Amino acid sequence: MNQNIAEQLLALSRKEPNARKRIRLLAVSLFYEGNSRTDIAKRLNIARSSVNKWVSSYTIPQKYLIILSD
Predict the structure, then answer these.
(1) Per-residue pLDDT tens for 14-27?
(2) Where are the alpha helices (DSSP H) in 1-70?
(3) Are 32 and 6 in contact (CB under 8 A)?
(4) Less Cβ around it within 10 Å: N or C end of the chain?
């Protein structure tokens, strides 16, 4: 399921005209693909603290995913 979310976020990032939002979507997509926050920050040349904020803001807590899948 995480791979599906990653693909959807990547598709959204490709369509997004706002560069800042595009990089946020890409960062969260990479997180759902299994990349660490540190690796994402290095790959995108951004601060790890930014990646931390974005991942925290854009991700759905695991407990809600379990509820939604029932």
Answers:
(1) 998 999 999 999 99
(2) 2-15, 19-32, 37-44, 48-58, 62-69
(3) yes
(4) C
